Amino acid sequence: MRGLEQLRLAVDDSTACEDLLLSSDIGVSIVAIEDDEPVDAVVVTDPTADVEFDAPVICYADCDPESVPRPERFDAFIRRGDGASLETQLRWLVARSTHTADNLTRLRRLYEGSSRLIAAETTDELFERTIDIADRILAFDNSSISIDVGDGFRIRSTRGDFDEDDRIPYDAGLLGETYRTGESRLINDIRTDETAAPHDPEYRSVISVPVGDIGVFQAISTEVGAFDEMDHHLAELLVSYVAETAARIESEKALRESRSRVEALHRGTIDLAAVTDLGELFDRTVAVADEILSFDMSYIGVVKDGLIVPAAMSKRFPEDGAEPLSVEDGSVAADVYQTGKTRLVEDMDEADDANPVKDAYRSGLSVAIGDFAVFQAAAYTPRAFDEADAELTELLMAHVAVTAERIRAEENLREERDRSTALFEHVSDAAVAYEVDDESGVACIQSVNNAFEEQFGRRDIDIIGDDLLAEIVPDSERDPPELCVADGERHRSEVQRLADGQTREFILNVVPLDPNAADGVGYALYTDITERKQRESELERQNQRLEEFANIVSHDLRNPLAVAQGHLELAREVNREESFDAVADALDQMEELIDDLLSLARQGEVVGETTAVDVGAIARRAWDTVETADGTLKISSATMDADTERLAELFGNLFRNSVEHNDGDAGVTVRVGPLDDGFYVEDDGSGIAADRREVVFEPGETTGDDGIGYGLAIVSRIAEAHGWSVAVTESAAGGARFEFRVE
Known about the structure:
By secondary structure, the chain is an alpha+beta fold. The protein is built from 18 helices and 29 strands.
């Protein structure tokens, strides 16, 4: 307020009041309550404090006046934090401290009358009371309040000759200037003011005061100089009460309306949650938007094949008011779908990407529904929607998206169940539907198909509710895979199951009914592979025999043949009888080996009948069949149960290995000797590196230039056929040592 002296304010808590008063247009200086200086008013934040001041005392605290000891000590009670009421009270004190007794009477009556203003529950009631106070207390014969209604001012209350249905433009003279500038005016003679454009040419003086940001209060007289500064100050004080009360009423009204809309929206979403059809869901959604959010025109567009296609429209939406839109055309709806961000278009003419289907649309609201649809509301007037509308619509569409996802999931589940049921009934493999009980862990049979009945000899009607695992799983199997369905897992494996009294081989497929739910409900499909497994086993045995046959032929026949060829050449040159004998022996050995191979090929046996044999004698015999160069064989006697011919093959391969892998100039020395439970063969050759001892028995593994890598593999195979283990270590001389033990 202009023209008032600076107010000196004593407070007991400067922090509590200072921030509230800094933005005030009252000149206030704050002093401590303990200072012994004259003050205009005192603010106390402690309602229990003793107060003895000549100046008015305001209790500024969170308390109920009735609970305060001796409340008459205070001139006013203001709730702590209510800066507007504190400022109003101080304004009154400032005015009271600067005027005469007559004016103080008007001021006191105005202050008393303000309680009626503050008690108003609607703005209409507030404005009526304001005009009444201006008339009775301030003696303003002709006063009015003009309120901004969006397309100009409307006179809400008056004692003059105005028509309340009239619209006054925003640029109308002093009224428009006061509203635009927010500054109050006192004009003693309108004829001298360029901005004044009175409604009646007889008007001469006026007080014009802005009412917050909602309108303007004016007191008008046909007399020149009808108002003075005190009238002006009182009008400002009155209007400050009005502005604060109007703001409070509108805030409370907006809060009530918002709460009411949210509660209604909550009830609407509960109804939507019970819908089981997408079409019905979209129809109900636009109905809720129409009824609860008060949207006159709205529709939902569902994205299909790159287009946003209208799926539901409100009753008042024009039939031609929406059309399919491309998700790539850059429209508002396309942008909302692409980004998922809500768009509030206050004026279509001002939005570059707004291209409404109808030119009459002036504002709109677009909200995404999940990733599959867009909600749009339209209006024929600009700024028909605000942020509150956007927030409530987002809340509604979030519920719609969740419900739509649930409906689509249920539809997919029903379709999947239908397909599963059809497949279950017509699948050629044995199938059972079952459920795993959470507490007992029992897989209870729900139904079986015809193939199951035939394969397992169990009729559907006889085993419903029975324990599936007890019916068909052998006692030896632990943790049957059928239980995987309890965790919602798929499973595939080869298993053995009891089928009509026999243990047979199956491929088991465990399929949960709902892959996303660990509810223990699912299917088990059993594909009988018993005959196939038998054929595979027989084929594997045949392949092993063929491989062994080829390996032995290529490897074990080579050396006797080489011996025979060598001695034959020598016999031709020198005609030595001994060479012919050696050739004959080699040929005999080859004949015996061929006989054994034929026997192996026919019978699939690596080792024939075993007897107790002299290991040393067999070793000496094998040594004589090997090209040993300058090698030496040393034997310590040992006895083993063995097949003589296969044991000779074993020694022959070991001896060839020692000779062929000897890197020294001297001939290799090979020793054969007994162990507690077997025998050993070792040499003083190059030995076998530690990192290769695990692989030397693999077929094809060789380090020589002329070997084919089957010698030690045959050794291992013959030992295994005898029931012996074989291990490679290092001999005392640093060569290779093979130890054979009975397992």
